[in-house]
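Tokens for Disease resistance R13L4/SHOC-2-like LRR domain-containing protein. Go.
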Amino acid sequence: MDNYTSDSSDGESCNRIIDLAYLLRNPESVDKTLSEYFENDSKKFQDIERIILHHNELNIVPHNLCRFINMKVLDLSNNGLTSFPDIFRYCQLTNLILKNNRLRNETLSKDFTECYTLRELNLGGNDIVQFPEQIFSFPNLKFLYLGGNAIKNISKDVWKLKQLQVFSLGGNQITEVPVTVGLLKNLQALVLCDNEIEILPANIANLHNLRSLLLHKNRLRTLPPEIIALKNLSELSLRDNPLVVRFVSDITHQAASLLELSARALKMYNINVQPGDIPQTLLHYLESAHTCLNPHCEGVYFDNRVEHIKFVDFCGKYRIPLLQYLCSPKCASTSTEEIVRPHRSYLMKKVLLG
């Protein structure tokens, strides 16, 4: 994010910025100052690209803001805003900073005009409890900050934000990460710290550009083993999670159903089944087989599986438990205290546990 300052020595740049930060002004006072750019048929307002209004006393958005049709950057952070209108009807912003206000889901404009230019949106530190669906009006977002709210769920439609590079959701009340997060192929930083997450989806391994994954202060007991495939991941923060404490889980196993036992036999003995031999639903069931992760086992499983913990040494110092699924308890005969070290090219540069 750009550093906004009013002491630039570039005269042309100064003419493009209105900086009223830290002046503790109310909406009427700000509106009066902004109106000067329109007096006597002045065209000065057309030159303005950045308006900086953070740390004032604005409970509403000043009316004259919408008149700056060439505005690209708007910073209204650290005010007392309780509502935000559809300003995108009037200008095509690239950066909108609304952090540390009092915005709620119902006080945001119900719909935002679709804006393809917006690259950064910061709604952190507000009173938002649901993932704002209005965000999907900005398909080219690269930086999205929603931390410090009370959001409970991440929208399953988050995959629509295909250009996201930074996705920050720390300090909310999120319990589950949808598999659609794994479709954000351009993501470089994913911040999920200080939530109530108990498990991560396995397809997080699809985030091949991910460099930073912050998961501290959650309820994670294990990580999906697929996380080892994140070759570009250089920072993994895990402190204040149950998985940091070394443990061995009791293996619980229920007998497989006759359906699963039959299907396993067909797969293990390579019995060929053609369409028409059995109902189509059973053919689909056979296609859903999973291979046991024990390299010495050639078995498969369907619905009935055994949870197993394997400790992995990510960077030569920390032992992290990864969750595996096996076909039977005998496949977990190796001690869960066995430490596995991934190939050196997969090792992470920084694992933060404390």
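The chain has four helices and 16 strands.
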